Amino acid sequence: SLAAQDTAWQKHYAVTTNEARLEQISRGILMFKLFMGALTGISLLVGGIGIMNVLLSSVTERTRELGIRKATGARDNDILNQFLAESVAISAVGSGIGLALGLAGAFGITAGIRRFSQAPFLSASVSWSTLAVAAAAALLIGLTFGTYPARRAARLSPIDAIRHE
To answer: How far apart are CA 138 and CA 157, in angstroms?
Structure first.
């Protein structure tokens, strides 16, 4: 053995493994995932605020219409459901556009990298679970950020809403 041949072997030889490199790569990947998660969260928050603003302006513009609907028998729940459906529809369309652009970008960038770096092993992939999570996130964002404008529309007084100019 090395220790039997050279008693001061620790001064002359260094024993290393790839465990430290593997740990460093694992930490780097974790940091990247956390960073991308933070960016995604910020994007969802901004998108949700955009949906809420669109619906709030829609409530303001359609106040008279909402008053007439309530005066002719529409219940608060009917108006609430209408605005929640609009909110989910807006977020679903935005999610669909985002998914299409994201997939096109991922496959396009991967094809460009493959072409210019002669890396035929590189490929982009997407799983159905990823698409399902994106669709569920769109639904959740639409419901969450559409709730306040929908409640505001449902709580309008029919008389005040009809008089609104």
So the answer is: 31
Task: Return the residue matching tokens 């960038």.
Answer: 109
CA distance linking residue 81 with residue 145, whole number of Å? 14
Say if CB 94 and CB 47 are below 8 A apart: yes
Alpha-helical segments (H) within 72-122: 76-117
144 neighbors 49 (Cβ within 8 angstroms): no
From 24-28, 49-53, 115-119, the region with the lowest mean pLDDT: 115-119
Q: How far apart are CA 161 and CA 60, in angstroms?
A: 10
Tokens describing residue 55: 């619906």
Instruction: Give the predicted TM-score (pTM) of the model.
Output: 0.74
Please give the single-letter amino acid code of residue 19. Answer: E
DSSP annotation of 155 reads T
